[in-house]
Specification:
single chain; 262 residues; alpha+beta; 5-stranded mixed beta sheet; two-stranded antiparallel sheet; 16% strand; globular
Length: 262
């Protein structure tokens, strides 16, 4: 009877610990939801107010000279594009969190995905005099869904370019360790505070100072806090992982994925 009581007591204690952990997990999830709603509200309210002000100025003919009218039209298009990307990112993140992401896995040459991502990122890099450097060989083939992998790689490159000072360098290389392929994106952002590293992939996290957009870096046109969260979600959906660490003059993101043929 004594042994039975001990077993029953241990079971109750374990259940209590599990319940506490479940409640703490629920609190973190709920806080994350509140933070995301507050963040999205802020990041939509500001550009919407600007769009309304510019539209009213054009409608009321407050601005008339052609150059100013053209500039207002350009800014309306830019802000509309930015909000479209934000909505797209929110939809992608909701699919990831809801477990609704469906991957069509195949053998994907990582070099081709990186080449396309570099081509898409090149205009922003050129505007900010940032060198994009990629390894000439050693690109493995991975088991992945190409559209989702392309989005994750593109987000990493865009993130690196946006937060690297002008005249900096973004370097991309890859390799294979046994049955795992890896891709690394290194920048010269100056590094990230060590306390921020564990939170860098959290939704809407904006660290100080390295990961806060600088004037003129294109950060205002991006996903502003969702890009890296989407990277983590997409990579983990592939059964891989993504990590970040500081290096001598910046930081280095490393993605690990199952290599094809394993």
């Amino acid at each position: 009877m004594r042994d039975l009581a001990l077993i029953f007591g241990a079971a109750l204690a374990a259940a209590a610990v599990w319940a506490d952990q479940a409640r703490e997990r629920e609190r973190r999830i709920e806080k994350g939801r509140r933070d995301l709603v507050a963040w999205v509200s802020h990041d939509l309210r500001t550009p919407l107010a600007g769009l309304r002000a510019m539209a009213e100025a054009l409608e009321d003919r407050v601005v008339r000279d052609p150059d100013t009218v053209d500039e207002y039209h350009r800014r309306i298009r830019v802000e509309t594009d930015r909000m479209t990307r934000l909505v797209d990112d929110l939809f992608e993140l909701s699919r990831i969190n809801a477990g609704a992401l469906r991957l069509s896995l195949s053998a994907v040459p990582l070099g081709d995905v990186v080449s396309d991502a570099l081509a898409s990122t090149a205009p922003l890099a050129a505007a900010r005099r940032i060198r994009l450097v990629a390894a000439e060989s050693g690109w493995p083939t991975v088991t992945a869904s190409e559209p989702e992998l392309a989005r994750a790689v593109g987000n990493l490159l865009l993130n690196a370019v946006r937060y690297t000072p002008e005249d900096g360098t973004v370097r991309v290389d890859a390799g294979r360790d046994a049955d795992t392929a890896w891709l690394a994106v290194a920048d010269t952002c100056g590094g990230i505070p060590e306390a921020d590293l564990p939170r860098l992939f959290d939704v809407a996290f904006r660290g100080e100072p390295a990961r806060t957009p600088r004037p003129g870096n294109g950060g205002g046109e991006g996903s502003g806090g969702l890009g890296l969260a989407i990277v983590r979600g997409l990579i983990e959906a592939h059964g891989g992982r993504v990590d970040v660490q500081n290096i001598a003059d910046g930081c280095r993101f490393v993605v690990r994925l199952p290599a094809a043929g394993t």
